Amino acid sequence: MNNLGSLLHPKSIAVIGGGSWCENVIEQCRKMDFQGAIWAVHPKRTEINGITCFKTVEDLPYGPDASFIGVNRFTTIEVIKSLNSIKAKGAVCFASGFSESVSEDAKSADLERQLVLAAGEMAILGPNCYGFINYLDGSLLWPDQHGGERVKTGVAIITQSSNIAINLTMQKRGLPIAFISSVGNQAQVSLAEMATEFLKDPRVTALGLHIEGIKDVVEFERMVHIANNLGKPIIILKVGSSDQAQAATISHTASIAGSNAGATALFNRLGVVQVQNLTIFLETLKLAHVVGEQPNNKVLSMSCSGGEASLMADIGQAVGINFPPLSKNQSARLRNTLGKMVKLANPLDYHTYIWGNWEAMTQTFIAALKDSDCIGLLVLDFPRIDRCDPQMWVDVIPSLVEAKNKTGCQIGVVGSISDTLPEKIAKELLEKGIIPFGGIESALDSIAKFATYSKMKSENILPPIIPLNLKVLTEATAKKMLGEFDIQLPISQTVSNYEDIKDAANNVGFPVVLKGEGSAHKTEAGLVALNLQNQTDILNAAKVMPSETFLIEKMIADSLIELLVGVVLDEAHGYVLTIASGGKLTEIFDDKISLLIPANNEDILKSLKTLKMWPLFLGYRGAPSPDINCILKTIQNVQNFVISNHGKISEVEINPLICRELDALVADALIKIGEKND
């Protein structure tokens, strides 16, 4: 949206309304030393916080670039109409009571539609939105306190929670924030549009998103592509990620995938970095700000304490940090600087006897990091600067800078706990290109998380289309449809009456499996009888089975692995392909991977290797190994089936897929399908 840039970089601001929120906007503009025009609009007041009031929007000198609308939801719509009439560029709609309140007030959604219609070409943030702060240019529409300050470069942060936004500005970790914004209901300007506008600013180094959900996966994908082209990493903290079985689902796939599988699969596909809490969110953004597109989980740790070295090793191992052993050259150089009394290892305890000998410390850091492809981390705990003298610790910084310049390695300082890295010191380190980490746990976790960053692999995610009039197919019908896509099936025959069972079983060939139709979960309903050896067995089983139609299949022997291969339509993210340990114990083992369709064989195989059951694929303890090519072919053909029926499929499940030495056969299948919603 062309006007979004004007809104975020305004030369003129109008504050419309008379409450304390509006007064606060004016006050915050003054504190940020905003240099443009500030106008106030109120029908009865003569001034607001020292600014003379215009009685109506139409009385303003011209359409402002940015307006903060601090009136009730009904009046907000009228104000938007007036702003549009004078060609205003954009506005923040502070009022709530729109689509977020639809469960309490059915009229709320219609009010939001009226708001968007009234806006026309104006850029609208919200409604139910605090606004934004531009710390680069000193402009903002923000009705509350914030803890940030003007910066020359920094990260952009978007959050769907205004309170979280406020809290993030209060951080004392030295992270430079260029922009921070909430987006409210995203009635018009979406999170992806806002993110794209921030990314285009050359002063923005990375993007952080604290989100509840994604409205348009295709638009989000385009935004990530822009970030990739600009070389700016994206760090995401998604809330609402707890796995919960979905009430409307009928397959095991949906219940084991859970509510977060689609989002995680999307983020993995796009190469963005997903973190789990706000501390790691801030620390990873700080890392991205300094190192850019250089993910690395290799660390060379240095400290003057064996206890700190042990903590680094233990915590690093737990989160996936790689501490490469010292090379012969590194060891030889360190022996020259440290002498014979120090045990040389990574993590390195260089002992305290060189403390204060800045030349020796500089040469030690250089000796350790020269010709290394690691991130160098120095554990350095500053004393309280309000009670102690920190000068000797400050004097270490030039040694680190020289080591960085001479080795070309990225270097970070790690406080054992966040309290021992003062904000003032963190800012000084950042100015010199040194990464300031507050706390060993958060430092190593953020490095490990950032190591997952990669460029987006493709742009062909299938956008979700919600089918109509869903129904669950019989197993026989489901298998017939899958068979048309070259998915291997056991020999089978369906019968609709008891008298035909003997002939059908003879045609299939004993031993057989007898299944009754009429339930998605046959085992629980008593609709499966396995390994029936003769006519007597199958007739006896049929007599007690609560079904009038039957599927008779050849019993599959020689199984090496049982897999679940399933697809669930995630209404926010698209089709989620899940592969898991199969059979009766699917939910108990909870050994699964999820990817977005379409997924290529390389990504599928890479994901399969993360399963706990992967050793079985290789022939565990001398057992034969299943044909991995047959497994991959089946998975690809399931995807082909879904792609060919895009917009009609809701769920597909093969459970189990019987994987053998020479083939992979579908033992049970389920399809939930409807009509395409055009």
What structural keywords apply?
Rossmann fold, 22% strand, 35% helix, alpha/beta, 30 strands, 678 residues
CATH architecture designation of the largest domain = 3-Layer(aba) Sandwich
Classify the helix fraction into a percent range.
25-40%
Count of helical segments? 24
Strand content: 15-25%
Find the count of extended strands (DSSP E, 2+ residues): 30
Number of domains: 5
Would you identify the CATH H-level superfamily of the largest domain? Succinyl-CoA synthetase domains
Task: Indicate the radius of gyration in whole angstroms.
Answer: 31 Å
Instruction: Report strand order across the widest sheet.
Output: 3-4-2-1-5-6-7
Structural class: alpha/beta
Large-scale geometry: flat
N-end to C-end Cα span? 27 Å
Largest sheet: 7 strands, mixed
What's the CATH class label of the largest domain? Answer: Alpha Beta
Provide mean pLDDT, rounded. Answer: 92
Question: Poorly predicted ranges (pLDDT <50, ≥5 residues)?
Answer: 242-249
Q: Any idea of the CATH topology of the largest domain?
A: Rossmann fold
